């Protein structure tokens, strides 16, 4: 079961439901999906994923749910929250490839950023993205993220090395962009 914590036009964010573990395990064992995640080299078992989701359910990590079908399609969440400095890291993945390139990730990210800035009173949020994930980079820039640095040749995939790009967004960047 999913609950509408944050609602957009095409999707809503729901607290993590460990009962979705089978779907998540399928996604996280799909090399096409994990190519964009740091879990690409991990072995994801159903039992391990269920346990992992139970722990995530205590954090600000949410299932992205298609508003029309109530089907989960991915996750978006905050990590390393620092309430004194009002910072966090954000991460997202759309596991259901039928939803890739259709704006669901941009909307889900925007919903969580609005919540992070207005409700959690955060000010600066950063993310990491692999240089070959051009679709994600375009989405992040559309939302208002700016590139703040590059960790050169820090990722090996498919016998090649790639940069990891660091981006951040301040609350004024987000609200200036979305108004």
Automatic annotation (TrEMBL):
Residues 11-168 form the N-acetyltransferase domain. It holds the Pfam family Acetyltransf_3. CDD domains: NAT_SF (cd04301). It comes from the Bacteria. SUPFAM superfamilies: Acyl-CoA N-acyltransferases (Nat). This is GNAT family N-acetyltransferase. The lineage of its organism: Bacteria, Pseudomonadati, Spirochaetota, Spirochaetia, Winmispirales.
